[in-house]
Specification:
Structural class: mainly alpha
Number of strands: 0
Distance between the termini: 57 Å
Order of helices and strands: HHHHHH
């Protein structure tokens, strides 16, 4: 349990630290850190239960995207400010490093296996973001229709 708490603290600090590196407004840093933690927790729970890296990254990306939309509305800031730092804990840096290392060492089969993992993970995260944006568009459309119905009933 204590290792989970340490991981959560490290994920929060990584998200906030990346937010500082990319000059995120200071009033958005805490929210970006929490966004990263929530996405990583979903990823962690799914990896522990299912062990499927693609679905874990998809749902982690989806949660980050949805939380970013909510935080953007609450803070009246663009959602991308929360997306990018929240994404940092899910980035497949270890697999990318191993792919490049194996390419340099001439282990092409191993390198392509790692490269396939990188593409799979990045695609799953991107798909999660796309689904989150689709949910936003559906929400806006439903609000518009219900608002139009209320106005026409007057």
């Amino acid at each position: 349990m204590s290792s989970l708490i340490i991981n959560i603290i490290c994920v929060y600090l990584a998200s906030v630290g990346f937010g500082l590196i990319v000059n995120l407004p200071h009033k958005a840093l805490n929210a970006a850190g929490l966004d990263g933690v929530l996405g990583w927790l979903v990823y962690y729970v799914l990896m522990q239960t299912t062990g499927e890296i693609g679905s874990a990254n998809f749902f982690g990306g989806l949660v980050i995207g949805l939380c970013s939309i909510v935080l953007a509305r609450m803070k009246k800031m663009p959602a991308i400010l929360f997306d990018v730092p929240g994404l940092v804990p899910l980035v497949p840096g270890g697999q990318a490093y191993n792919a490049i290392k194996n390419f340099a060492m001439g282990n092409y089969t191993e390198a392509f296996n790692y490269l396939a993992q990188v593409v799979w993970i990045a695609g799953a995260i991107a798909l999660g973001f796309i689904v989150a944006e689709l949910c936003l568009k559906i929400d806006v459309k439903i609000r518009r229709v219900t608002r139009a119905k209320r106005i026409s009933k007057r």
